[in-house]
């Protein structure tokens, strides 16, 4: 079994440097044009702010006796490439371990192990790269920020709609929550920002209701597990069909993407059962992810019609249809279908409010 770790253990310092230069080369290919200075400033900020970050973490999570384990990691972190991020590493590497174990239980194994490095890209998704050094998944703060901001939006609506002991999440309670927590304006700001950059990285502060953090964290975790599980299956296909870059016979590119989505759904359900995460078990996380992506992309088409649409992948709506068909055909319990319907209702009502704001913005722009 090849892995970056095992190769590193057997390499001289010179060869190890060659390995990380190769990883850095792959990372450099993911850098969006014009974002180089942003990435450099972000790295400098972490280096110069270690003490402040550790102090903040100890104040929130420390016991006042022993240093918190994460604080120790912050102190010792040294990125092996100029793109490596402490936060991405801490977020995604444990999830990759979980995903790998679940795939092994499903008899989906690889001839090479998979290592995770930071993606400096801005987009919401991750990407996988097979290589002679072992396979690599790149995931970073483009994914983290997208999942985090949209989890705030959806969890805010859930908390607001259920604050009056109404667990049905009907249209009336959803719209009341949207109005109470300014979800329309927040969603418009997020999608307008995305329209300009194709990302939510660097958006800034977005408020959330009291008590939302734990629910949001669970939803973010489930979204990220699904994304990593999707990429892992791409690597499995790469090994099975190396001559066609992982594309199975008689399968289109879009069909392959939906296949990876479906395997991601299987892994996500099992992850949720193991970790008691209902957003994973009930497949709420990928519904929220692709609903959010649809809101962003549909707004981008209206605000920036000159931006080319990438049709190499299924649309967010196609992927939502795939998830709903997976649930419908999977003989899942009714409560799971009920969860899907509730979050779909939330998405529909958010979309209606967003459409009105975008229309008003475009109308006002004609007279400015």
Task: Output the keywords.
single chain, 368 residues, mainly alpha, 3-stranded mixed β-sheet, globular
Descriptive account of the structure:
The chain has helices at residues 4-9, 13-29, 36-48, 50-61, 69-76, 86-105, 141-161, 171-180, 183-197, 213-240, 253-275, 278-281, 284-303, 316-329, 334-365; strands spanning 114-118, 127-129, 135-139. It is mainly alpha-helical and 368 residues long. A three-stranded mixed beta sheet has the order 1-3-2. β2 (127-129) and β3 form a beta hairpin. α10 crosses α13.
Q: Beta-strand level of the residues, as a percent range?
A: under 5%
Mean pLDDT: 89
Oligomer: single chain
Gross morphology is: globular
Order of helices and strands: HHHHHHEEEHHHHHHHHH
Quick structural gist:
This protein has helices at 4-9, 13-29, 36-48, 50-61, 69-76, 86-105, 141-161, 171-180, 183-197, 213-240, 253-275, 278-281, 284-303, 316-329, 334-365, and strands spanning 114-118, 127-129, 135-139. It has 368 residues and is mainly alpha-helical. A hairpin with a 5-residue loop joins strand 2 and strand 3.
């Amino acid at each position: 079994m090849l892995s970056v770790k095992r190769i590193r253990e057997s390499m001289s310092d010179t060869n190890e440097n060659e390995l990380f230069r190769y990883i850095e080369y792959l990372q450099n290919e993911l850098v969006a044009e014009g974002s180089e200075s942003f990435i450099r400033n972000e790295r400098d900020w972490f280096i110069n702010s270690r003490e402040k970050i550790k102090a903040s973490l100890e104040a929130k999570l420390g016991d006042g006796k022993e240093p918190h384990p994460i604080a120790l990691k912050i102190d010792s972190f040294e990125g092996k490439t100029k793109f490596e991020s402490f936060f991405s590493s801490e977020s995604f590497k444990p999830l990759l371990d979980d995903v790998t174990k679940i795939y092994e239980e499903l008899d989906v194994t690889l001839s090479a192990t998979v290592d995770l490095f930071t993606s400096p890209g801005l987009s919401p998704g991750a990407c996988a790269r097979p290589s002679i050094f072992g396979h690599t998944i790149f995931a970073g703060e483009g994914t983290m920020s997208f999942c985090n901001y949209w989890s705030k939006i959806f969890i805010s609506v859930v908390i607001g709609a259920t604050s009056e002991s109404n667990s049905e999440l009907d249209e009336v309670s959803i719209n009341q929550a949207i109005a109470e927590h300014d979800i329309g304006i927040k969603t418009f700001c997020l999608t307008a920002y995305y329209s300009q950059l194709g990302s939510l990285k660097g958006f800034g502060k977005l408020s959330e209701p009291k008590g939302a953090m734990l629910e949001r964290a669970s939803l973010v975790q489930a979204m990220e597990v699904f994304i990593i599980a999707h990429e892992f299956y791409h690597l499995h296909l790469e090994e099975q069909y190396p001559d066609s870059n992982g594309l199975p016979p008689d399968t289109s590119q879009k069909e392959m993407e939906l296949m990876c989505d479906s395997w991601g759904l299987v892994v996500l359900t099992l992850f949720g059962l193991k970790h008691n995460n209902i957003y994973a078990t009930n497949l709420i996380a990928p519904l929220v992810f692709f609903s959010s992506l649809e809101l962003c992309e549909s707004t981008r088409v209206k605000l920036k019609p000159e931006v080319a649409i990438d049709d190499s992948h299924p649309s967010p709506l196609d992927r939502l249809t795939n998830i709903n068909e997976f649930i419908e055909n999977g003989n899942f319990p009714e409560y799971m279908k009920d969860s899907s319907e509730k979050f779909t209702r939330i998405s529909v009502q958010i979309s209606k409010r967003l459409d009105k704001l975008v229309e008003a913005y475009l109308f006002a722009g004609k007279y400015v």
